[in-house]
Write a sequence for this structure.
């Protein structure tokens, strides 16, 4: 007996009990749809974190001032102004494993320009900052060391700031005022989207660090040119821990910290934090898929249940088929094909439902969704495997019936 | 004379039923030649059904020997028995045993499905057999859309489809009225007239009298085996019954 004939017999048998077949399939449909949707949501979340890692810049270490202690009260990270611009340059110069080291000053202020005004964050940076934090200039150009030395009044706008001030017009070449200081916009930064914390990373203005210090923040020519933080990018292939150690050592030397004293600065490896988050999101995704797989398993047991009922119901049919010459393996094939057909049709409908459900979640809940071919292929394979696995026992039971007893079955 | 189609030697079968052994057959030796029309009779529990199941290779004997067309059947495995049932034997059952919601043509073609006959060939042969039993127009009807007599004719067509050497009919008229019974028996007589060997199991003497030879079973053994000199003509009886049933004007049925 060939497979095509088996499939036709299976389809007829399934048609005879339409409602029962549909309900049995429902288990598989829900299972497959759940697996696909959960994998889509899970890998969507993972994809977003991967994008954020890319946006943040890989191999990134942030150097921040340490905490102060005032009368036994510790003030928290960054409360001490011990970090200087020169520290940043020294790290770049003295540690070969560092690709870019960018001292950064942070400030906030009202910006006026174009057709509106906007309150935003600005960073005074060196050209290395772009490399360290993966900023790409979308329009116009960036600034160079000459602009830093000359404290040029040039600024690059983040996407959000550019839109808030200029709408769809091109801001490059326009003049804006940051805390009343006039700046020429020389470029617009490429969009980065939200950060992990949900902050808008594009609500930002970048300018030369000297400009921020002298002209906007109004710090005079103090002896210590302190900075808020230093963004350090480690070269690819370098051991992050080792470079981190070298930076720590260099900083302790520069700040003349004695052996038994604490650091007056903090080093934070942000990539590591993100990697941890990525890992936990991956595990979360796996967990979701595992839970969804349980419903697929339950669907499979439903198939087995119905196939057992079907074999009992059709004992006389089995007896007749055997009487006219069906061998045990013909009967086995017939019921196995029926179970697989049930599982596969359910699986295909489940794929449609799962893809639709994923798109709906992406659309209505606004969750990031990642649809791949792998979960679809996986589900089809899984559905077929369930058909074979849960169909085998009932089919084998049918094939072992004795023709004379099956024929007489009431 | 050539070898008989069916030879059984000391065929015996016993079952264990509720702790004690039931001897369904106690050494039956029978020979049936090709072209015979044999009725197997006996009350229930006489062993005639067990004998029938052994002849049909649906069951295996406890001891003794069974040769079908010279081939030793007793001792073959399940698959070999299935092949013999498929190619050598056509079954007709009391309850027709047609597949529900399956067109008559597909019911008839069922045995061909299990010996690798291609689809078009299956359909062609099934249609030919259906025409032979006089139901050419009913090929796409489901069993539920056919009368009892028509269903049994479809079942006979199914029994014939793989050109068997033997038709085994187990109470083929048990579920039918007298006229339809006669019609079915007429069909079996007609097949026999064309050379088909028919073995019929029945407990009705009226039905057994259509056969050319009657073997009577009692308590698992043959107690009588005689030829019927003048078998009744089923076709003629059916014709008579049909005439008698014609509604006459003024008659109250």
């Amino acid at each position: 007996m060939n497979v095509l004939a088996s499939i036709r017999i299976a389809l007829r048998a399934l048609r005879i009990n339409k409602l029962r077949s549909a309900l049995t399939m429902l288990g598989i449909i829900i299972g497959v749809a759940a697996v696909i949707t959960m994998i889509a949501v899970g890998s969507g979340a993972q994809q977003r974190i991967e994008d954020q890692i890319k946006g943040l810049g890989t191999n990134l270490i942030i150097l921040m001032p340490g905490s102060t202690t005032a009368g036994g009260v510790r003030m928290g990270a960054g409360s001490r102004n011990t970090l200087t611009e020169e520290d940043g340059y020294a790290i770049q110069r003295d540690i070969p494993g560092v690709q870019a080291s960018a001292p950064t000053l942070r400030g906030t202020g009202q910006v006026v320009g174009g057709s509106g005004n906007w309150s935003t964050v600005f960073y005074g940076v060196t050209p290395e900052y772009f490399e360290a934090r993966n900023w790409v200039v979308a329009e116009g150009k960036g600034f160079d060391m000459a602009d830093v030395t000359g404290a040029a009044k040039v600024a690059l706008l983040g996407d959000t700031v550019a839109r808030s001030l200029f709408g769809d017009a091109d801001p490059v070449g326009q003049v804006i005022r940051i805390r009343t200081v006039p700046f020429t916009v020389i470029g617009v930064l490429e969009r980065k989207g939200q950060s992990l914390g949900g902050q808008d990373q594009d609500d930002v203005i970048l300018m030369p660090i000297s400009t921020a210090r002298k002209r906007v923040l109004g710090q005079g020519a103090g002896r210590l040119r302190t900075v808020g933080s230093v963004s350090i990018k480690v070269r690819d292939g370098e051991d992050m821990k080792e470079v981190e150690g070298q930076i720590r050592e260099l900083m302790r030397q520069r700040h003349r910290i004695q052996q038994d004293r604490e650091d007056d600065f903090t080093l934070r490896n942000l990539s590591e934090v993100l990697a941890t988050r990525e890992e936990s999101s991956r595990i979360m995704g796996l967990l979701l898929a595992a839970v969804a797989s349980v419903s697929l398993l339950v669907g499979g047991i439903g198939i087995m249940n119905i196939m057992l009922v079907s074999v009992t119901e059709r004992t006389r049919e089995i007896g007749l088929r055997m009487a006219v010459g069906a061998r045990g393996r013909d009967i086995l094939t017939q019921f196995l094909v029926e179970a697989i057909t049930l599982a596969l049709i359910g699986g295909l409908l489940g794929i449609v439902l799962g893809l639709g459900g994923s798109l709906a979640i992406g659309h209505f809940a606004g969750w990031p969704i990642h649809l791949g071919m792998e979960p679809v292929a996986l589900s089809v394979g899984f559905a077929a495997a369930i058909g074979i696995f849960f169909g085998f026992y009932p089919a084998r039971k049918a094939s072992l019936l004795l023709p004379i007893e099956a024929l007489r079955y009431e | 004379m050539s070898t008989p189609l069916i030879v059984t030697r000391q065929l015996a079968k016993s079952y264990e039923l509720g702790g004690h052994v039931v001897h369904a057959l106690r050494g039956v030796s029978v020979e049936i030649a090709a072209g015979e029309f044999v009725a197997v009779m006996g009350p229930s529990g006489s062993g005639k059904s067990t004998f029938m199941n052994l002849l049909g290779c649906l069951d295996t004997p406890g001891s003794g020997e069974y040769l079908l067309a010279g081939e030793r059947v007793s001792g073959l495995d399940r698959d070999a028995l299935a092949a013999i049932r498929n190619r050598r034997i056509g079954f007709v059952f009391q309850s027709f045993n047609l597949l529900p919601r399956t067109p008559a043509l597909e019911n008839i073609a069922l045995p061909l499905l299990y010996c690798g006959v291609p689809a078009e060939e299956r359909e062609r042969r099934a249609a030919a057999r259906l025409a032979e039993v006089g139901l050419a127009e009913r090929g796409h009807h489901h069993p539920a859309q056919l009368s009892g007599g028509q269903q049994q004719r479809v079942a006979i067509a199914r029994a014939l489809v793989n050109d068997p050497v033997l038709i085994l009919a187990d109470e083929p008229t048990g579920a039918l009225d007298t006229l339809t019974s006669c019609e079915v028996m007429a069909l079996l007589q007609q097949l026999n007239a064309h050379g088909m060997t028919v073995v019929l199991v029945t407990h009705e003497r009226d039905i057994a009298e259509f056969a050319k030879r009657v073997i009577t079973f009692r308590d698992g053994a043959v107690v009588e085996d005689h030829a019927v000199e003048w078998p009744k003509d089923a076709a003629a009886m059916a014709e008579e019954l049909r005439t008698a049933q014609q509604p006459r004007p003024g008659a109250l049925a």
